[in-house]
Design goal:
The chain has 421 residues and is an alpha+beta fold. 16% of the residues lie in helices and 30% in strands. It is built from 5 helices and 24 strands.
Length: 421
């Protein structure tokens, strides 16, 4: 009996499931779907409401101190529309579903997944926490784990997205610890190496490289030129080598340590700062814009345009000084404190993170009228649309798959870059 023509919803559901499967990274972050546009559909520039876990203050003593359960939220703009386009012939639509998947959908969804994840991972440019390694060792993996634990990151759902070059350094060292059990066999063959050291590992060749400068700029060795006040959002430095320092560059200041988010106990590890705007270094009085904690009282305000990867809700871009209720550094920088930066060009980087550190969100696109077929489906937080038209002249079906999405760094303290210097 001849095959029936494949219909739009069958094609779309199959394509969406393949896309989800091909997205190595998106399946391990917080993927949210906003159904408020399911009626008429959305368009570029529409906003998505994102949820954050509630925060509480701790009572001391016997007296009851009730507080409301308030879930923080912020808005994310769905500004990126991406898709793949193809012409189906009538013969294509008479293929079996398996053949159609292999010949048409699989290569399409692979390309869409690769481009979407590569775009999403540019958010790493704004992650302020970083560790320089050469080469990557299991001890470095444990350093990343220690950082997440010190920042009160939940123990479960921790992942280590390992760059292909770093994977070469570490896989031989840990080969006896990884296993391909029946439960993870498919993921293992697709790139997941297994679970060890408190992380589920997976290899990704879509990680962006780390570049601190495009010319001769050197920040390491520069010193603080003037002591900033509590709540600062920039530092002034002297002694840097002239050139252009790029946004995303991670640096530390001698003597400035990270602290426990709740107890404020000082750690031995240096606090990580990140440059949030490109700056031309001259060697004297150079201003580095940076940031530290999130202003949760203004959580619904979007980060300003032009900054890379800033966390949702960060308005003031300040770093709390010592003894402040929300302090995240052990002391304020002083004149003469020496700066050390992670510097280089096109350095490979891996990422240790918790699932809630990053959010990828999609909304339903509008459904056009007057076409041959159209369909829209949501699967595991991913919404995709298929629109198909018929060309009577050439007996083909011009078709397009589209997704509309946005992304945000939600918890800076839940992720740390591991940079191969």
């Amino acid at each position: 009996m001849p095959n029936k023509m494949l219909v739009d919803d069958v094609i779309l559901k199959s394509g969406l499931m393949i896309l989800h499967e091909k997205c190595q990274f998106l399946g391990r972050v917080d993927t949210q779907y906003d159904n408020s546009y399911s009626g008429n559909g959305g368009k570029r520039g529409d906003t998505i409401r994102l949820r954050k876990p509630a925060r509480y203050s701790v009572r001391k003593g016997q007296t009851l101190s009730l507080q409301d359960h308030v879930e923080e939220n912020t808005s994310l703009t769905a500004s990126i529309q991406a898709g793949v386009d193809v012409e189906f012939t009538s013969a294509d639509l008479t293929l079996s579903l398996d053949d159609f998947k292999a010949n048409v959908l699989d290569p399409q969804m692979s390309d869409l997944a690769s481009d979407t994840e590569a775009t999403f991972l540019t958010s790493m440019l704004g992650m302020k926490n970083g560790i320089g390694v050469n080469p990557l060792t299991f001890k470095d993996v444990q350093r990343a784990k220690a950082f997440l634990t010190q920042q009160t990151t939940p123990v479960g759902d921790r992942f280590f997205a390992i760059d292909s070059e770093d994977q070469v350094d570490i896989v031989d060292e840990l080969k006896g610890l990884f296993q391909s059990s029946s439960e993870i066999d498919r993921q293992y063959k697709e790139g997941t190496m297994g679970k060890t050291g408190g992380f589920t590992f997976f290899e990704s060749d879509r990680m962006p490289t780390y570049t601190s400068t495009s010319d001769t700029a050197v920040l390491t060795g520069a010193t603080i030129a003037s002591a900033p006040s509590d709540g600062f959002n920039q530092v002034v430095v002297d002694g840097a080598t002239a050139g252009t320092l790029l946004a995303g560059t991670i640096f530390s200041i001698a003597g400035i340590k990270a602290v426990h988010p709740q107890t404020k106990r000082s750690y031995s590890a240096d606090f990580s700062f990140v440059v949030i705007e490109d700056v031309v270094l001259t060697g004297t009085g150079d201003i580095l814009k940076t940031y530290g904690f999130v202003d949760y009282t203004n959580i619904n305000i979007q980060p300003p345009a032009g900054n890379k990867g800033l966390e949702a809700g960060q308005v003031s871009y300040v770093v709390g000084g010592a003894n402040a209720p929300r302090a995240n550094i052990s002391a304020l920088p002083q004149v003469g404190d020496v700066i050390t930066a992670i510097e280089g060009q096109n350095l490979s980087q891996s990422l240790a993170f918790h699932k809630k550190a990053l959010t990828f969100a999609t909304i339903d696109l509008n459904m056009p009228k007057g076409v041959d077929m159209s369909a829209r489906e949501n699967f595991e937080g991913l919404s995709m649309r298929l629109v198909r038209q018929y060309d009577i002249k050439d007996d083909v079906y011009p078709s397009r798959f589209d997704i509309l999405y946005g992304y945000q760094i939600m918890r800076q303290e839940y992720c740390v870059r591991v940079i191969h210097t």
